[in-house]
Amino acid sequence: MFSLDWIYYAISWILLTWHSAWDAIVPAEAVIGTNWAWIFSIIFLVVTVRVILFPVFVKQIKSQRAMQALQPKVKELQEKHKGDRETLQKEMMELYRKEKANPLMGCLPMFLQIPVFLGLFHTLKRLTPENSQKTLYGWTVQQFESASNAKLFSAPISGRFGSTAEQLAGLGASTNTVKIVAGILVLIMIATTYLTSRQMILKTGWAEDPQQRMVQRLMLYGIPVSLLVSGSIFPIGVIIYWVTNNLFTLGQQQWVLRKFPPLVPPKKAGTAARNGQPVAKSGGLLGRKTAQPAAKAPAAAPKVAAPKPGAKPVNPKKGRPAKRQG
């Protein structure tokens, strides 16, 4: 059977290394009901992982640019093979292979972080006083007991929203306190997960490829909704990791999208533009729209008053012979 011990050892080593560094800086006792050395250890575990995965993130951006550049060709294939889904999929796979574009590259950084998430989940889950195997994965007894008693606003980092009263009593924690802290963190986790996906889609636009669009919808709506259920089983320390990771992603994406703006295809004039109606442009993190002012209509020609009865014409018509006197 495949063993994940190497992941647990790696995560424990990074976590304990950062804890040793922060333990020499911040007070050992709890401040505002929080053991900050352990909280900062989890936060800088995120920083370490994201720095290691930064080259993969750059490849993700390049792949998304390649996919965006292929959208016109993808649309042509959809029109050409309309109704023939099997042929369409073959042609699109051949196009991706020829242009060296991978529609699944956008999910690769997230998939690579799954082992880290699982390692931290397993490490924090075992932080209970009744656990006799305290020295597993390179921990000392002192480090294990310190982490077991570590809290965030009086809620243990190994506690969960779904923990029973007996489990929390063993950790010396109040049920209401744990549920309040964990509940707030779960809501923040859901909101930041949604915003990270929303930020990227607003900048790059919705994909024309149905498969890619389905992945975008899954990232935007599916994952945040699933966290409503799965968030109740995550230890508070894992939720701290997730929220920190989302905030890191928001900042990193904003920096990359400003430095390397996405391709913007030329927009075709729509019916509204032909009819003189304002065309809406999307912008901002929440996708608000602003309308351009409509083009002004040309000014009407000034009306000329008709001559009064009996008055001589100002400009007599050309070609009429002059009246002789006599």
Using the CA coordinates, give the radius of gyration: 33 Å
Strand segment count: 4
- State the helicity in percent bands: 55-70%
- What distance lies between the first and last C-alpha atoms, to the nearest angstrom? 131 Å
**Biggest sheet features:** 2 strands, antiparallel
Residue share in β-strands: under 5%
Shape: elongated
Class from helix and strand fractions: mainly alpha
Put simply, the count of helices is 12
Q: Taking all residues together, what is the mean pLDDT? A: 80
Strand order of the largest sheet: 1-2
Q: Which regions have little confidence, pLDDT < 50, spanning 5+ residues?
A: 266-293
Order of helices and strands: HHHHHHHEEHHHHHEE
Description:
It is built from twelve helices and four strands; from the N terminus they run αααααααββαααααββ. The chain has helices spanning 5-23, 36-52, 54-69, 71-80, 85-99, 108-125, 141-148, 165-170, 175-204, 210-230, 236-259, 271-274; strands at 151-152, 155-156, 280-283, 288-291. 24% of the residues are buried.
What is the strand and helix layout of this fold?
Elements lengths: L4 H19 L12 H17 L1 H16 L1 H10 L4 H15 L8 H18 L15 H8 L2 E2 L2 E2 L8 H6 L4 H30 L5 H21 L5 H24 L11 H4 L5 E4 L4 E4 L35
Antiparallel strand pairs: 1-2, 3-4
